[in-house]
């Protein structure tokens, strides 16, 4: 076991969290929420998504939200986009673009989410690379939705995922780009800790230069267990959402918990002696604000259970070392 000394959490609540809500959320509430996240110490915030308002009406105010937030120095503000039209909109707005090539490891989910098969999406990647290069953005990242399993196809074979990864790495290389990071998304909550370890270790052995970033869901309650398994293999980048907001509107799991909770992951790291640079009390307040905005209780635990620092000052790791 080699735990990282520090972890970076990438907050996706304002985008993936809010897009799953059926009741309209006021633009001003979105802006206030992002501002509070910035003040809580989060350094990476996915603010919105450039998608069709016909399919995701909650994101129709993307430009207004980006124009209204208070930008804190040192914080990167990102936005999601699924097609080249979305990328074009993103290029016209003040957001950090990662130069990412994204596929789904599940063909069925790819057709449901992006209206194209995985093969068709792979064939379009040269257009994505050209668009990034035209905007002077280096292509350094690849991402795979449904990396571990899919409600429509079952478990994703690791060899299939590795084949897709190799295809993207080789394609990028043929266009003068070098992939440095892979983001693996457990879009529908299929992963288990042993699967996480096996996948991570296999990728680390095959491509030791790749940084592995995880996007985990808590659909069936294994979110934090999967985080812990990843931490044991030295992973240090995770997507999270305040309060456990979110989920996937195309995943066919209605009412299930969403993304892993930012405050719960930060608390786990704190208890293990891993630095996140985040203020737990501020994250708890953000979770309470999120519940107020969406008008319902969220699945995150820390806001309900309370901070242990209110009872004792030291983490478990500090106590063990004393």
UniProtKB/TrEMBL annotation:
The record lists the organism as: Psychrobacillus insolitus
Q: Which family does it belong to?
A: Belongs to the HMG-CoA lyase family.
**GO biological process, alphabetically ordered:** ketone body biosynthetic process; L-leucine catabolic process
- The record places domain Pyruvate carboxyltransferase at 7-284
What Pfam families does the database record attribute to this sequence? HMGL-like
Q: What is this protein identified as?
A: Hydroxymethylglutaryl-CoA lyase
**GO terms for molecular function, please?**
hydroxymethylglutaryl-CoA lyase activity; metal ion binding
Q: Which UniProt keywords apply?
A: Lyase, Metal-binding
| Residue runs in coiled coils | none
- PANTHER family from the entry? HYDROXYMETHYLGLUTARYL-COA LYASE
């Amino acid at each position: 076991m080699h735990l990282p000394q520090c972890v970076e959490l990438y907050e996706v609540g304002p985008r993936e969290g809010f897009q799953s809500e059926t009741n309209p959320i006021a633009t001003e509430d979105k802006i206030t929420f992002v501002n509070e996240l910035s003040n809580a110490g989060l350094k990476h915030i996915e603010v919105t998504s450039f998608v069709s308002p016909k399919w995701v009406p909650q994101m129709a105010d993307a430009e207004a939200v980006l124009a209204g937030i208070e930008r804190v120095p040192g914080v990167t503000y990102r936005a999601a986009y699924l097609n080249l039209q979305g990328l074009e909109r993103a290029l016209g707005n003040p957001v950090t673009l990662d130069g990412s090539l994204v596929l789904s490891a599940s063909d069925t989910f790819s057709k449901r989410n992006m209206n194209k098969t995985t093969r068709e999406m792979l064939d379009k990647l040269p257009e994505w690379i050209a668009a990034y290069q035209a905007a002077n953005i280096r292509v350094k990242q690849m991402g795979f939705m449904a990396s571990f399993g899919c409600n429509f196809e079952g478990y994703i074979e690791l060899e299939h995922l590795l084949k897709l990864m190799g295809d993207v790495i080789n394609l990028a290389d043929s266009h003068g780009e070098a992939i440095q990071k892979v983001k693996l998304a457990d879009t529908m909550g299929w992963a288990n800790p042993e699967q996480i370890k096996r996948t991570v270790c296999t990728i680390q052995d095959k491509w030791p230069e790749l940084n592995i970033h995880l996007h985990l869901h808590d659909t069936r309650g294994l979110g934090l267990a999967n985080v812990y398994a990843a931490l044991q293999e030295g992973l240090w980048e995770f997507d999270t959402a305040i309060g456990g907001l979110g989920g996937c509107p195309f995943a066919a799991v209605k009412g299930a918990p969403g993304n892993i909770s930012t405050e719960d992951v930060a608390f786990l790291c704190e208890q293990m002696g891993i630095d996140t640079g985040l203020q737990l009390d501020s994250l708890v307040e953000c979770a309470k604000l999120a519940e107020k905005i969406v008008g319902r209780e969220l699945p995150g635990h820390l806001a309900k259970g309370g901070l242990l620092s209110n009872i004792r000052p030291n983490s478990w790791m500090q106590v063990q070392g004393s």
